[in-house]
Amino acid sequence: MFSFLRRQKTAGSPSPSPLLYYALAAVHLAATGTLLVVGRMLVGLDTKLAAAIPAWLPKQLSPSQLELLALGVAGGTAALVLLLAWCGRRAARRIAQRHVAIEEEKSALTEQNSQLARHADELRKACKQAEEASRSKSEFLATMSNEIRTPLTAILGFADNLLSPDLSSEDQILAAQTIRRNSEHLLEVIGDILDLSKIEAGRLAVQRVPCSIVQLLAEMASQMRVRAETKRLELHVDYRGPVPETILSDPARLKQILLNLIGNAIRFTSRGTVRIVTQMNNRQAESAELRIDVIDTGLGMTPQQIAGLFQPLSQAESSTARQFGGSGLSLSISKRLIEMLGGAIAVASRQGQGTTFATTIPVQFAAGTNWIERPSEAVTPLRKSDTHLTTRISLAQCNLLLADDGPDNQRLISFLLRKAGASVTIVENGQQAVDKIWESFQSGSPFDVVLMDMEMPVLDGYSAASALRQRHYPGAIIALTAHATAGDRERCLTAGCDDFVTKPVDRAQLLRTIDRYLGSPSRTTLTSGSGRLVREA
Q1: CA nearest neighbour of 441 among 398, 471, 414
Q2: Is residue 446 packed enough to be buried (19+ CB in 10 Å), middle (13-18) or exposed (0-12)?
Q3: Are 278 and 292 in contact (CB under 8 A)?
Q4: Are 177 and 230 in contact (CB under 8 A)?
Q5: CATH superfamily entry for domain 387-535
Q6: Is 50 exceeded by the pLDDT of residue 319?
Q7: CATH number, domain 211-382
Q8: Helices 169-201 & 63-162, crossing angle to 10 degrees?
């Protein structure tokens, strides 16, 4: 029977149940015991067998006793075999369970090893990124140091020249122009750094307000034409097809984008032209797209140079930066601003033949918006006298208060105001400003306009403006601040200021802002005593 089962197993048939083996073993033992009993009944006990029987058993066993003994031995043996089989099965089960547990632990260890390998890879990547960031930071600081120190060298050097008593009037004018030009460049660099940091921090917001793209391009061309003419370049604004009279977009960001792109084209073009080509890709109000191409006849670029063009501090070559200047931030800023407006920018260039920057920005406009068929003819040219309007602004008989803690700013701003005919009173902090303004208001001779620096000791400009408004002071307060973002403007207006002028102070902007509050048809007339407010018709 056992030989048959082994042959079946070897032949590949399904293995019998272990219980079958146990049953067969018991049957085998029982059969053996039965044969033994029958044999002893026939021939009797063998002498050697009798000698092996313990002393407490009778030497002569009757057939029935012998039969019972054989059955007991057979049954005990069978029970022992079954017990051993059960123990073996239990041991096999535990071994199987342990094997499963070992496999699970092995799988867990494998997963942990995989996780550790992934973490190690992530740490290596993070370490590499940190090294690259540190290297980029060092390169950024080195580049910015050069961009700041270069104009500062010219400013300080020509300022020293102006102190020379034997400097001719022509050289004095040249020195002053050089100082102004380098100061404007320095201001652009600082503005680019601040804009990039705000974009990186996600603090630069965009808005959508009605604006005229035709007027905006005319202003940009007028502003940049002076720079182009200094290099004997032609600057043209062309239109391909009609454009809407007004669109909904962010005019401040559009101006910044165009200034960067046009300025970049002028910087890298030695001769020829710079063209601004504008068109609308479709006339559907829901999916309108404004396209502006800035095309130059400058150096051009290779595909390798274009690939890294929009990275911060990127220029085609270091020699290019040395030859043409520039911080390398403007294109990166422009690209991010375009993306913030939902648009895209593409570059087409051939080395030695020029470059085209194609900007597409989604815009909106009202369904009934008029379309300008000939945009080039729709712009009213700026009169020459308009560029010098500030020279005709008179602040005669105007009583102003200037609150600023900087002695140099006090001298400069008061000089500009007095040159325009104003009477200027100067205080050094916000508390002095509040006291002086309220005293003059109560005495019946209030200040026409207050110029308030927002960062001063004792009491800052925000707190001073708030304190005056809490006393119901109705006069015009214009904030002077080096913080130039929209959020800073809102903070000044919330504190109680009526308007906002940024530092460095632009003379034309300052005089226009003051004149706006002096010459308004609804100009506020202040009275003494009760603080009563009377508005002129």
Answers
A1: 471
A2: buried
A3: yes
A4: no
A5: Response regulator (3.40.50.2300)
A6: no
A7: 3.30.565.10
A8: 160
Tokens of 125: 């990547």
Lowest mean pLDDT across 98-107, 375-384, 433-442: 375-384
Specify which of 1-5, 120-124, 205-209, 427-431 reaches the highest per-range mean pLDDT.
427-431
What are the structure tokens assigned to 295, written together? 């095309």
Comparing CA positions, the residue from 206, 366, 354 lying closest to residue 294 is 354
Tens of pLDDT, residue by residue over 197-208, are 777 777 777 888
Distance CA 442, CA 527 (A): 8
Residue 528 in contact with residue 442, Cβ under 8 Å?
A: yes
**Residues 117, 484: Cα–Cα separation, whole Å:** 49
Contact present, 349 and 304 (Cβ < 8 Å): no
**Total-model pTM:** 0.59
Q: Is 370 helix (H, G, I), strand (E, B) or coil?
A: coil
Angle of helix 213-230 relative to helix 251-267, nearest 10 degrees?
Answer: 30
Q: Are strands 234-239 and 273-280 parallel, antiparallel or unpaired?
A: parallel
Whether residue 392 contacts residue 386, with contact meaning beta carbons closer than 8 Å, is answered with: no
Query: Residue 321: what residue type?
Result: A
Confidence of residue 135 (pLDDT cuts 50, 70, 90): confident
Q: What is the largest CA-CA distance in the chain?
A: 156
Residue 140, both tokens: 């950024």
Task: Please write the tens of the pLDDT for every residue from 469-480.
Answer: 999 999 999 999
Residue 419 and residue 393 in contact, taking contact as beta carbons nearer than 8 Å: no
What is the residue whose two structure tokens read 């917001």? 205
Query: What is the Cα gyration radius of the chain?
Result: 48
Q: How many residues appear in the chain?
A: 537
d(CA 274, CA 70): 121
pLDDT at residue 92 is higher than 80: yes
- 48 pLDDT band, cuts 50/70/90, is very low
In three state form, how does the secondary structure of 241-271 look?
Answer: CCEECCEEECHHHHHHHHHHHHHHHHHCCCC
DSSP string, 469-486: HHTT--SEEEEEES--SH
